Amino acid sequence: MVYSREDFKYIDAHTHFFPPDMFKSIWDWFEKVKWEIKYQLPTEELVKILKNQNVKAFTTHNYAHKKDLAENMNEWTNKFSKEHPNAIPFGTIWPEDENREEYTKKIFEIYKFKGIKIQPLVQEFYPNDPRMTEVYKIIEDYGGFITWHAGTAPYRNEYVGLKHFKKYLDKFSDMKMIIAHMGAYEYDKFIKLLDKHNNMYLDTAMIFIRNNIFPERKVKQPKPEILQSYQDRILFGSDFPNIPYPYEQSVLGLLDLDLPRNFYQSIFFKNAKKIFRLKGI
Ligand SMILES: [Zn+2]
Known about the structure:
This protein is α/β, with parallel strands linked by helices. The chain has a single domain (5-275), classed as TIM Barrel (Alpha-Beta Barrel). Helices cover 40% and strands 11% of the residues. The protein has helices spanning 20-32, 43-52, 70-83, 100-109, 120-123, 133-141, 162-171, 187-196, 217-220, 224-229, 248-255, 261-275, and strands at residues 10-12, 55-59, 87-88, 90-91, 115-118, 145-148, 176-179, 200-203, 234-235. It has a six-stranded parallel sheet. Helix 8 (187-196) links the parallel strand 7 and strand 8. Helix 4 (100-109) runs parallel beside helix 6 (133-141). The longest helix is centred in the C-terminal third of the chain and has 15 residues, at 261-275. The radius of gyration is 17 Å and the shape is globular. Residues 14, 16, 205, 239 line the site of zinc ion.
């Protein structure tokens, strides 16, 4: 390993911040499936941990899983991001909410969030769900991002995978989007999409860690030379705090690849700073 963690500063494009009571139920669920999260801590402590890891800015991904929750969650995120100016706020939308178009506008117009997070694995709707079409148009109009858990890792249901995602992509091909986990496990296919979709980015969350968490992960990981050739389109992400290993692992696994300094500067910091238009960090 040529570089060490201290050689770089970071923007984490894949961190979660739920209201504390929701975090608690999520963590209880993870416990049940034997995913032992080491960071089941109060919100302020989580923020402090990121700061100590030299993370200069971080996203606030959360997602509603039933009706009439999203609006309050967005309000919570707005308050949180006002208290933490280095938060990169992302909202959530639930397709059954009657006022979804109205609060989507509010997300961008009033709250000035950077985007929204969609998690089809938990939210259980198809990316091209017609109830979301108007919402997508609003996001696109405001130049917001969608961070998509579009891939099939760590497990799959009928709503994930490129096959369904493509139906959305055909309609919104120029939309700004970030594909979580580099599209795992369909890495190659998602990487290829970067050639066609100039506003698409991939985040590295959970993919390059030293200890092998997912059985399919190691074999199908993108090759270092491929990463390098798309270095302007890759964003560092960790999935903190919902990880069953120390935060450092997310960085160390990438440093193990021994790629050039400018590669790391781009993916750890520069790319996210640019696309989220972050100032003063
Ligand atoms: Zn995540």
